[in-house]
Design brief:
Layout lengths: L5 E6 L2 E6 L10 H17 L4 E5 L12 H4 L9 H27 L4 E5 L2 E3 L1 H7 L3 E5 L3 E3 L13 H4 L6 H10 L2 E3 H7 L4 E3 L2 H15 L4 H16 L2 H15 L2 H12 L17
Parallel strand pairs: 2-3, 3-4, 4-6, 5-7, 6-9
Antiparallel strand pairs: 1-2, 7-8
Protein backbone atom coordinates (compact mmCIF):
# COMPACT_ATOMS: atom_id res chain seq x y z
CA UNK A 1 0.00 0.00 0.00
CA UNK A 2 1.23 3.51 -0.81
CA UNK A 3 0.91 6.50 1.51
CA UNK A 4 1.25 10.23 1.01
CA UNK A 5 3.26 10.89 4.16
CA UNK A 6 5.16 7.66 4.81
CA UNK A 7 7.27 4.90 3.34
CA UNK A 8 7.05 1.55 5.13
CA UNK A 9 9.71 -1.15 5.00
CA UNK A 10 10.37 -4.33 6.94
CA UNK A 11 13.73 -6.05 7.30
CA UNK A 12 13.53 -9.37 9.10
CA UNK A 13 11.60 -8.57 12.28
CA UNK A 14 12.06 -4.77 12.27
CA UNK A 15 9.46 -2.50 10.66
CA UNK A 16 10.78 0.87 9.48
CA UNK A 17 8.28 3.71 9.07
CA UNK A 18 9.75 6.78 7.32
CA UNK A 19 8.23 10.28 7.12
CA UNK A 20 8.80 11.11 3.47
CA UNK A 21 7.77 14.71 2.75
CA UNK A 22 11.13 16.45 3.26
CA UNK A 23 10.38 19.39 0.97
CA UNK A 24 7.37 20.23 3.18
CA UNK A 25 9.40 19.66 6.38
CA UNK A 26 7.29 16.55 7.02
CA UNK A 27 4.45 18.69 8.28
CA UNK A 28 1.41 16.85 9.59
CA UNK A 29 -1.23 17.33 6.92
CA UNK A 30 -4.69 15.70 7.31
CA UNK A 31 -3.57 12.45 5.65
CA UNK A 32 -0.79 12.07 8.22
CA UNK A 33 -3.28 11.60 11.05
CA UNK A 34 -5.07 8.71 9.37
CA UNK A 35 -2.04 7.07 7.76
CA UNK A 36 0.08 6.86 10.93
CA UNK A 37 -2.38 4.89 13.09
CA UNK A 38 -3.32 2.73 10.10
CA UNK A 39 0.34 1.79 9.59
CA UNK A 40 1.15 1.24 13.27
CA UNK A 41 -2.04 -0.73 13.96
CA UNK A 42 -1.44 -2.91 10.91
CA UNK A 43 2.13 -3.70 11.98
CA UNK A 44 0.99 -4.44 15.52
CA UNK A 45 -1.96 -6.56 14.42
CA UNK A 46 0.03 -8.68 11.97
CA UNK A 47 2.61 -9.43 14.66
CA UNK A 48 5.47 -10.33 12.31
CA UNK A 49 7.56 -7.32 13.38
CA UNK A 50 9.11 -7.30 16.83
CA UNK A 51 10.16 -3.65 16.88
CA UNK A 52 9.14 -0.51 14.99
CA UNK A 53 11.53 2.29 14.01
CA UNK A 54 10.17 5.68 12.94
CA UNK A 55 12.59 8.00 11.17
CA UNK A 56 12.36 10.95 8.84
CA UNK A 57 13.88 12.55 5.76
CA UNK A 58 15.35 15.95 5.01
CA UNK A 59 16.74 18.60 7.34
CA UNK A 60 14.01 18.31 9.97
CA UNK A 61 12.14 15.48 11.61
CA UNK A 62 8.82 17.35 11.41
CA UNK A 63 7.61 20.94 11.51
CA UNK A 64 4.46 19.76 13.28
CA UNK A 65 0.81 20.19 12.55
CA UNK A 66 -0.86 22.03 9.69
CA UNK A 67 -3.45 24.16 11.52
CA UNK A 68 -6.00 23.43 8.80
CA UNK A 69 -6.29 20.00 10.47
CA UNK A 70 -8.17 21.70 13.29
CA UNK A 71 -10.14 24.33 11.41
CA UNK A 72 -10.64 22.79 8.02
CA UNK A 73 -9.43 26.15 6.71
CA UNK A 74 -12.29 28.03 8.41
CA UNK A 75 -12.03 30.04 11.62
CA UNK A 76 -14.57 30.10 14.44
CA UNK A 77 -15.18 33.84 14.27
CA UNK A 78 -18.35 35.26 12.75
CA UNK A 79 -20.51 32.24 13.61
CA UNK A 80 -23.84 32.25 15.41
CA UNK A 81 -23.94 30.99 18.99
CA UNK A 82 -25.53 27.71 17.93
CA UNK A 83 -23.09 27.18 15.08
CA UNK A 84 -20.16 28.10 17.31
CA UNK A 85 -21.24 25.43 19.79
CA UNK A 86 -21.38 22.80 17.06
CA UNK A 87 -17.96 23.85 15.78
CA UNK A 88 -16.44 23.62 19.24
CA UNK A 89 -17.95 20.17 19.76
CA UNK A 90 -16.40 19.11 16.47
CA UNK A 91 -13.08 20.61 17.53
CA UNK A 92 -13.10 18.46 20.65
CA UNK A 93 -13.78 15.32 18.61
CA UNK A 94 -10.95 16.28 16.26
CA UNK A 95 -8.53 16.68 19.17
CA UNK A 96 -9.52 13.25 20.52
CA UNK A 97 -9.01 11.68 17.10
CA UNK A 98 -5.57 13.25 16.75
CA UNK A 99 -4.65 12.02 20.23
CA UNK A 100 -5.61 8.49 19.20
CA UNK A 101 -3.20 8.71 16.25
CA UNK A 102 -0.27 8.95 18.66
CA UNK A 103 -1.73 6.66 21.33
CA UNK A 104 -1.41 3.95 18.66
CA UNK A 105 2.35 4.04 19.33
CA UNK A 106 1.76 3.23 22.99
CA UNK A 107 -0.76 0.51 22.22
CA UNK A 108 1.43 -1.27 19.65
CA UNK A 109 2.43 -4.71 20.87
CA UNK A 110 6.09 -4.07 20.10
CA UNK A 111 8.43 -1.22 21.10
CA UNK A 112 8.48 1.94 18.99
CA UNK A 113 11.85 3.69 18.60
CA UNK A 114 12.05 7.15 17.02
CA UNK A 115 15.09 8.68 15.28
CA UNK A 116 14.96 12.49 15.30
CA UNK A 117 17.08 14.84 13.21
CA UNK A 118 16.79 18.62 13.01
CA UNK A 119 13.62 20.26 14.26
CA UNK A 120 10.97 18.37 16.21
CA UNK A 121 8.24 20.95 16.54
CA UNK A 122 4.75 21.16 18.03
CA UNK A 123 2.80 18.06 17.06
CA UNK A 124 6.06 16.22 16.45
CA UNK A 125 6.84 16.54 20.18
CA UNK A 126 3.40 15.08 20.91
CA UNK A 127 4.32 12.20 18.63
CA UNK A 128 7.77 11.35 19.96
CA UNK A 129 6.67 11.42 23.60
CA UNK A 130 4.31 8.51 22.81
CA UNK A 131 7.21 6.29 21.70
CA UNK A 132 9.13 3.84 23.85
CA UNK A 133 12.53 5.40 23.16
CA UNK A 134 13.87 8.45 21.36
CA UNK A 135 17.27 9.06 19.75
CA UNK A 136 18.58 12.24 18.13
CA UNK A 137 21.27 13.84 16.02
CA UNK A 138 23.53 16.51 17.49
CA UNK A 139 21.66 19.21 15.56
CA UNK A 140 18.20 18.08 16.72
CA UNK A 141 16.02 20.42 18.76
CA UNK A 142 12.59 20.26 20.34
CA UNK A 143 9.99 23.00 20.66
CA UNK A 144 6.51 23.02 22.20
CA UNK A 145 5.43 25.46 19.52
CA UNK A 146 1.77 25.70 20.52
CA UNK A 147 2.40 28.30 23.23
CA UNK A 148 4.11 30.51 20.64
CA UNK A 149 0.96 30.63 18.53
CA UNK A 150 -1.46 31.27 21.38
CA UNK A 151 -2.78 27.82 22.11
CA UNK A 152 -2.34 24.99 24.61
CA UNK A 153 -0.71 21.79 23.38
CA UNK A 154 -3.44 19.16 23.36
CA UNK A 155 -2.28 16.01 21.56
CA UNK A 156 -0.13 14.43 24.26
CA UNK A 157 2.93 16.53 25.09
CA UNK A 158 1.58 17.98 28.34
CA UNK A 159 0.40 14.56 29.48
CA UNK A 160 3.47 12.49 28.58
CA UNK A 161 6.47 14.81 28.71
CA UNK A 162 6.34 15.42 32.51
CA UNK A 163 6.57 11.65 32.96
CA UNK A 164 9.71 11.48 30.81
CA UNK A 165 11.73 14.44 32.12
CA UNK A 166 11.72 16.53 35.33
CA UNK A 167 8.39 18.30 35.68
CA UNK A 168 10.01 21.70 36.12
CA UNK A 169 11.85 21.34 32.83
CA UNK A 170 8.66 20.25 31.07
CA UNK A 171 6.80 23.24 32.49
CA UNK A 172 9.53 25.65 31.38
CA UNK A 173 9.48 24.28 27.84
CA UNK A 174 5.67 24.42 27.72
CA UNK A 175 5.44 27.94 29.18
CA UNK A 176 8.24 29.56 27.17
CA UNK A 177 8.16 27.71 23.86
CA UNK A 178 11.97 27.81 23.76
CA UNK A 179 14.05 25.32 21.85
CA UNK A 180 15.64 22.46 23.74
CA UNK A 181 18.85 21.18 22.14
CA UNK A 182 19.71 17.53 21.67
CA UNK A 183 22.41 17.85 24.33
CA UNK A 184 19.87 19.10 26.89
CA UNK A 185 17.33 16.49 25.80
CA UNK A 186 19.94 13.80 26.44
CA UNK A 187 20.92 15.29 29.77
CA UNK A 188 17.34 15.34 31.10
CA UNK A 189 16.50 11.91 29.69
CA UNK A 190 14.19 12.71 26.79
CA UNK A 191 16.52 10.99 24.32
CA UNK A 192 18.57 7.87 24.96
CA UNK A 193 21.56 8.78 22.81
CA UNK A 194 22.83 11.48 20.44
CA UNK A 195 24.63 10.82 17.13
CA UNK A 196 26.71 13.01 14.85
CA UNK A 197 24.76 12.46 11.64
CA UNK A 198 21.35 11.32 10.51
CA UNK A 199 22.93 8.30 8.85
CA UNK A 200 24.66 7.28 12.07
CA UNK A 201 21.42 7.88 13.96
CA UNK A 202 19.19 5.70 11.80
CA UNK A 203 21.79 2.94 11.57
CA UNK A 204 22.20 2.81 15.34
CA UNK A 205 18.46 2.87 16.04
CA UNK A 206 17.86 0.08 13.54
CA UNK A 207 20.61 -1.91 15.27
CA UNK A 208 18.93 -1.40 18.65
CA UNK A 209 15.60 -2.46 17.18
CA UNK A 210 17.24 -5.55 15.69
CA UNK A 211 18.64 -6.46 19.12
CA UNK A 212 15.16 -6.11 20.65
CA UNK A 213 13.86 -8.35 17.87
CA UNK A 214 16.06 -11.22 19.08
CA UNK A 215 14.08 -11.44 22.34
CA UNK A 216 10.83 -13.28 22.98
CA UNK A 217 8.12 -11.12 21.35
CA UNK A 218 5.61 -12.15 24.00
CA UNK A 219 8.01 -11.23 26.81
CA UNK A 220 8.73 -7.86 25.14
CA UNK A 221 5.00 -7.17 24.78
CA UNK A 222 4.46 -8.00 28.45
CA UNK A 223 7.36 -5.75 29.43
CA UNK A 224 5.93 -2.84 27.44
CA UNK A 225 2.45 -3.35 28.87
CA UNK A 226 3.83 -3.48 32.41
CA UNK A 227 5.97 -0.35 32.07
CA UNK A 228 3.09 1.61 30.55
CA UNK A 229 0.70 0.44 33.26
CA UNK A 230 3.20 1.23 36.03
CA UNK A 231 3.66 4.77 34.72
CA UNK A 232 0.00 5.52 35.40
CA UNK A 233 -0.68 3.43 38.54
CA UNK A 234 0.63 2.75 42.02
CA UNK A 235 3.33 0.20 42.69
CA UNK A 236 0.81 -2.06 44.43
CA UNK A 237 -1.61 -1.92 41.50
CA UNK A 238 1.25 -2.52 39.07
CA UNK A 239 2.50 -5.57 40.94
CA UNK A 240 -1.01 -6.99 40.84
CA UNK A 241 -1.19 -6.24 37.11
CA UNK A 242 2.01 -8.10 36.24
CA UNK A 243 1.01 -11.07 38.41
CA UNK A 244 -2.24 -11.31 36.45
CA UNK A 245 -0.46 -10.83 33.11
CA UNK A 246 2.08 -13.56 33.90
CA UNK A 247 -0.68 -15.98 34.91
CA UNK A 248 -2.22 -15.76 31.46
CA UNK A 249 0.68 -14.91 29.17
CA UNK A 250 3.91 -16.50 30.48
CA UNK A 251 5.34 -18.94 27.95
CA UNK A 252 7.73 -21.57 29.43
CA UNK A 253 8.77 -22.72 25.91
CA UNK A 254 10.29 -19.27 25.25
CA UNK A 255 12.38 -19.54 28.41
CA UNK A 256 13.46 -23.08 27.49
CA UNK A 257 14.42 -21.88 24.02
CA UNK A 258 16.56 -19.10 25.54
CA UNK A 259 18.50 -21.55 27.69
CA UNK A 260 18.82 -24.07 24.85
CA UNK A 261 20.06 -21.43 22.41
CA UNK A 262 22.64 -20.20 24.93
CA UNK A 263 23.92 -23.74 25.48
CA UNK A 264 24.09 -24.34 21.72
CA UNK A 265 25.68 -20.92 21.08
CA UNK A 266 23.02 -19.81 18.61
CA UNK A 267 20.31 -17.16 18.41
CA UNK A 268 17.00 -18.23 19.91
CA UNK A 269 13.98 -18.74 17.67
CA UNK A 270 10.54 -17.71 18.86
CA UNK A 271 7.03 -18.03 17.51
CA UNK A 272 5.60 -14.71 16.30
CA UNK A 273 2.76 -12.97 18.04
CA UNK A 274 -0.58 -14.21 16.80
CA UNK A 275 -2.24 -11.79 14.37
CA UNK A 276 -5.19 -9.73 15.55
CA UNK A 277 -8.35 -9.43 13.47
CA UNK A 278 -10.00 -6.05 14.11
CA UNK A 279 -13.00 -6.66 11.87
CA UNK A 280 -14.97 -9.49 13.46
Amino acid sequence: MSYRCFDVQQLDHVAHVILNRPDELNSMVPEFWTELPTIINDISDRGSARAIVISSTGRHFSAGMDLAVFTGGDGLSGSSTAELGRQRAQLRLTALRLQDSFTALEKARMPVLIAIQGGCVGGAVDMVTAADMRYATEDAWFCIQEINIGMTADVGTLQRLPKLIPEGVARELAYTGRRMTAAEAHRVGLVNEVYATAEDLVSAVLDTAAEIATKSPLAIWGTKESINYTRDHTTADSLNFIATWQTGMFQPPDMIECFTAQAEKRDPEFDPLLPIARDL
